[in-house]
Amino acid sequence: MPDHDDILSDAEREALATVSVPAAAIQKVLIVDDNRVARESLTSYLKTKGIECVTAANAEQALKCLKAERDVGLLITDLRMGPFDGLELIRQIRESERAALPIIIVSGDADVPDAIAAMHLSVVDFLLKPIDLDKLVALVRKELGIT
């Protein structure tokens, strides 16, 4: 009786795997900061490292972007923005369908209670401005699964 476990050859399996497995979508970073220069500078820097970015000038724009852009895999947000701040943005995300989204906070104006509140909202990290860019890029690559 023939062995039926090996219906396909190794070459056929390999060919089938390349056709069957869709390429993983490249995930983007959403950068949220009400300071245009800071937002654009960070976006430009990350792009030089091969990281695709989209931006929002405030929390409201960020929420709209998250609904429209399904390939956002990480959020980097400033803490102090109007009409509502970064912590409120994170609270709203944590109560949405995007609750598991990794989030990094960057802030030039923060105190210990802000950091504690952020950690309770399960952020990846809380970085003070001026940002250690090497550390930020390492965090971004880790969260997006980029090697």
TrEMBL record:
PROSITE patterns: RESPONSE_REGULATORY. Keywords: Phosphoprotein. Gene3D superfamilies: 3.40.50.2300. GO terms for biological process: phosphorelay signal transduction system. Residues 28-144 form the Response regulatory domain. InterPro entries: Bact_response_regulator, CheY-like_superfamily, Sig_transdc_resp-reg_receiver. Pfam families: Response_reg. The modification 4-aspartylphosphate is found at residue 78. It comes from the Bacteria. This is Response regulator. It comes from Pseudomonas alkylphenolica. The lineage of its organism: Bacteria, Pseudomonadati, Pseudomonadota, Gammaproteobacteria, Pseudomonadales.
